[in-house]
């Protein structure tokens, strides 16, 4: 996976996601036979340009990916039209022009639009023979639509950029549309940009909604205010059919999935099978949210009379364990469940506040024990991280307890992610507090660390690399422990998180969220130091606490862990043979990370002053007083060193961009500092931009200088 993202240095996250999604969706569908002689990079540009045209067709014409790929005619003699789609049932034609940019900076200028409009005019003049071979299968369909009395033509223009069209381009389009529509409304146009494509691919990662039917017998009640709510009962066998048809999709908004045969759930199954007619008395029932409710009465249209309710996008937010237990009982003895009734509360969210669903979910989950981790699944930030995993890395990020854990190479859970980020955090006290009580990772009140770990939304790449380093260190300790005895073996077993924390401090976070090989090389070099870290930790334990100290208590004590980590790092710093191996440079032809790229191009002169600019409102608020107290705290001087290019005005020491941000946070004693550090975005060259922005511009310039045969 790393090789596939080496060329994405400085590319906005949304564009990376779009690129990955287009590649997955159209890799085996698009025809590239006309560009065999191009280099791999050029072929990829042509592919992505055509894939963007196909995705545009899919979105505007509501067709399948295969149909959209068939619509692409991009190539010589396309006359500015990259894709053509004709409706098989209505006289509608979609003409598409798409412009790809690897940096997300594409715009459609007046030249491109003139060419596109001229191509449209040639179709109106029935000059089909002027178009290439890819268009010819569409000629008859286009001709039939153009001759239909109900003809409509939709011009779809797409550019992978934030800006829509140049002013001149918009004027051209408006004038052309007015001319085409002089007699009747014939032509319209639509523009799609980064936001449209990003929204579409995010929707593709969401599960399909589950719609169910609930049959309420006599005696139900409906409240219409403030939100439409039905209170009644359904038979257990109908509820079992919900689960049979939709499975875990019913619980996508719940804090967790069914937990299997817990003691509570096993008791429910026994009650259903042995005393089905009494089950209603012993069970709290379920709460269901839905987007809309459609009523179908069996006889008289009146409240309390038998009715069938169609619930669109239904999700069980309380009672997941009840639903799963009902289905388990149904599989064993379906006839028994016809006698069992389940209390239901059905709430329609149409017109309700956007946060009502989350508040209901959080307030109603009390029947089985709910862990602090479970409520992380309700955090919108976690859903964005899940999408980032799927779109950036093509990996799974499991949020809910009860959901199947992914294979080690396929992804990780939010619990593993939180633990890895806690180990990576500069403060060793977090590891000690986790040993005291693992719930500390999920607490958001004072004393909890959830906000520090996830508040600034670390990228999927940062989380995945952190998880991999933690796994590698733990695996190495297991291997080492097999050859150890006594105290060393106990430390290898009990201090795995502390050893991992020290490894994270050795490798640092600089570049961890940037695609490329540098951090990967550092990971490998750091893992090889696990045995040295372990041996040094054992020595420091003996020196500070003697040979017979109670190790479990030491590893739970915050001050002890802080002192041990500091001592181990000092000892390793003084031992030359224990220094991490210098990471290898990226292989030739691959793009370097931000700082090496800027140094290689000599974009910033030695001695240039940079200003620290906090990235978030929380960061600005926490640091404002400390920074303004001594103005030098804001300032650093640039030197062309690919590892530590910043000299802080306060101490004249050299730092990496992320390293200096971390030092500032530490000196300012920011207790709630996050785990994610975006160093290159925090240092600003006045009048030019941040280091990250300067690197992105360099890459965009390099791309512009190259030939893009797929662009129009």
Q: Can you describe what's shown?
A:
- It is built from 28 helices and 20 strands.
- The longest helix has 22 residues, at 40-61.
- It is an alpha+beta fold.
- The strands form five sheets. A six-stranded antiparallel beta sheet has the order 18-17-16-15-19-20. The protein has a five-stranded mixed beta sheet with strand order 6-7-12-8-11.
- The radius of gyration is 30 Å and the shape is flat.
- Residues 1-6, 255-259, 576-591 and 704-712 have low confidence and may be disordered.
- A hairpin with a 5-residue loop joins strand 1 (83-86) and strand 2 (92-99).
- Helix 18 (486-494) packs across helix 21.
Quickly describe the structure.
The chain has 712 residues and is of the alpha+beta class. It contains 28 helices and 20 strands. The longest helix is centred in the first third of the chain and has 22 residues, at 40-61.
Number of helices: 28
Average predicted confidence as pLDDT: 82
Work out the radius of gyration. Answer: 30 Å
Which strand order does the major sheet show? 18-17-16-15-19-20
Number of strands: 20
Identify the overall geometry: flat
Largest beta-sheet characterization: 6 strands, antiparallel
Secondary structure category: alpha+beta
* Head-to-tail CA distance between termini: 30 Å
Q: Please indicate the percent range of residues in DSSP E strands (runs of 2 or more).
A: 5-15%
Which regions are unreliable across 5 or more consecutive residues at pLDDT < 50? 1-6, 255-259, 576-591, 704-712
Helix content range of the residues, please? 40-55%
